[in-house]
Design goal:
By secondary structure, this protein is an alpha+beta fold. The chain contains 10 helices and 19 strands. It has 3 domains: 170 residues, no CATH class; 77 residues, no CATH class; 110 residues, Sandwich (Immunoglobulin-like). The strands form 6 sheets. The chain has a 5-stranded antiparallel β-sheet with strand order 1-15-3-11-12. Strands 7-8-4-10 form a 4-stranded antiparallel β-sheet, with helices on one face.
Length: 465
């Protein structure tokens, strides 16, 4: 049962106020500093997490620079007649001009049954004497065998074929005739091999009266065919998207024009390459701007009292070390064989007084036109140092990396501080209990003395009378 405390009824002392003031003083010394440190560690961890996110964004923008991706030098492919042929080029493509003629497009094969049905939901051959089957083969896949009985409908046939393959599609077509409905099976692939559709019915069906699926029209799949000036003979392809013929280039055949020359030109795409470098500079500057805010120290003066408020990262060197590593990577990204382009500065990239980067795109494009390979090589060296596995950014952001270890260390200190606070609160709580017990005894003694005084005063008054 809780103790009922009538604070100061006898002594006139506000014991609860005195206990609270004593506890507040103890907390100011033993609890509040730890709580302030916990808040600082939490703010630092939040800032480090944000820094990690921004570094990963920088890695994404720098990743295309790596040697494994052929560097940021982007290639463009143009066509003299996009109604016949288009093309796309990867960074590995070589500049050049190619003349092509498209004589044939790749197409898919199909089979159209000659049978016509009034209702696809009604049994096709209710008079069928014995169960039969149809066999559908699409490309090189295993044949699909569909059983057919006297109760089988055209819908059943379509469902069974579509459930049995992803290589082709069966459908019901309204021919506009009487009866209207026909079965069509079409390959989902193009080419002579994978685009072929084979359809056969068992003798139970073809000899039925009337016969079922005894005949139909087969359209064979075809390969694409085209020529390239300088290469003897015709080139065939199972699809209309052709890779490997011109290294690093994908040809997209649009229409047949066997007597029309189409010119494909592969060249450096200066605008796309410039955009990649600009994206990197923007991501880098976003980090510098963020860190400037997180490292800010605010000075507040109140008379003789001076208070400095530190930003979440002001007491950490992790962010500073990360920026130093990035700057070192820039200075190490050189290409000694270049004439106009040997270092990052030759790309129109310079450092401002506030640490951000300035990008002169006009200078970049000028030197890109002079020495595209040198530009690409300098940026590849930088990408390999910064964005590759175990590169500058990976060392900072990976599991067990610099930022993760710092956050883990801060969390351990937060746990320790919370333990200290818990012990301090327990001691303060015990101190409050002890003080209440002492004040309770004081109130009891004071009350007894006041009672005795009243009795003595009464007795003395009686003697006087």
């Amino acid at each position: 049962m809780p103790t009922i405390n009538f604070s100061g009824l006898a002594s006139g002392i506000d014991t609860e106020a005195l206990i609270k003031a004593t506890s507040d003083a103890a907390r100011a010394q033993r609890v509040l500093p730890s709580q302030k440190k916990i808040q600082d560690f939490d703010d630092t961890n939040t800032a480090l997490t944000d820094l990690k996110t921004k570094l990963l964004a920088l890695q994404t923008k720098t990743n295309p620079f790596k040697t494994s991706l052929n560097g940021p030098l982007t290639k463009g492919a143009s066509s003299s007649d996009e109604t016949i042929l288009t093309a796309t080029a990867s960074n590995s493509a070589s500049n050049g001009t190619y003349t092509l003629r498209v004589s044939n497009l790749a197409s898919s094969g199909s089979y159209s049954a000659d049978d016509r049905f009034t209702d696809p939901a009604v049994a096709m051959a209710p008079s069928l004497a014995a169960p039969g089957s149809i066999t559908v083969t699409i490309g090189t896949e295993t044949p699909i065998v569909v059983p057919v009985t006297a109760t089988t409908t055209l819908n059943d046939i379509v469902t069974a074929i579509n459930d049995g393959t992803t290589k082709g599609t069966a459908s019901i077509v309204n021919t506009g005739q009487t009866p209207p409905y026909a079965l069509v099976v079409k390959s989902n692939s193009t080419g002579v091999t994978e685009g072929t559709v084979s359809f056969a019915a068992s003798t139970e069906l073809t000899t039925n009266v009337p016969p079922l699926f005894a005949s139909g029209t087969t359209v064979a799949g075809e390969d694409a065919a085209f020529t390239i000036t300088g290469i003897a003979g015709s080139i065939s392809s199972a699809t209309n998207s052709v890779t490997g013929v011109i290294p690093g280039v994908t040809l997209n055949l649009v229409s047949e024009a066997p007597t029309t020359d189409v010119t494909i030109t592969i060249a450096d795409d200066k605008a796309a390459t410039t955009s990649k470098v600009q994206d990197f500079v923007s991501a880098y500057n976003d980090i510098i701007t963020y860190l400037a805010e997180q490292n800010k120290i605010t000075r507040e003066e109140r008379g003789a009292s001076i208070t400095n408020t530190f930003g979440p990262l002001a007491s950490s060197r992790i962010d500073e070390n990360a920026i130093i590593s990035l700057r070192n990577a820039m200075s190490q990204s050189t290409y000694t064989e270049g004439e106009y382009v040997r270092i990052i500065a030759d790309l129109g990239i310079s450092t401002e007084r506030d640490g951000t980067l300035k990008f002169d795109s006009a200078k970049f494009q000028e030197n890109l036109a002079k020495e595209p390979d040198s530009v690409n090589q300098v940026l590849k060296n930088f990408g390999d140092l910064v964005a590759a596995a175990n590169g500058v950014i990976d060392q900072q952001t990976r599991l067990g990396g610099v930022i993760a270890n710092a956050i883990t260390s801060n969390k351990a200190q937060i746990t320790d501080l919370n333990d200290r606070i818990a012990r301090a609160e327990a001691n303060i709580s015990k101190q409050e209990s002890d003080m209440r017990a002492r004040f309770s005894r004081l109130e009891s003694i004071t009350s007894q003395m006041q009672s005795q005084q009243a009795q003595l005063t009464s007795a003395l008054a009686g003697l006087g009378n």
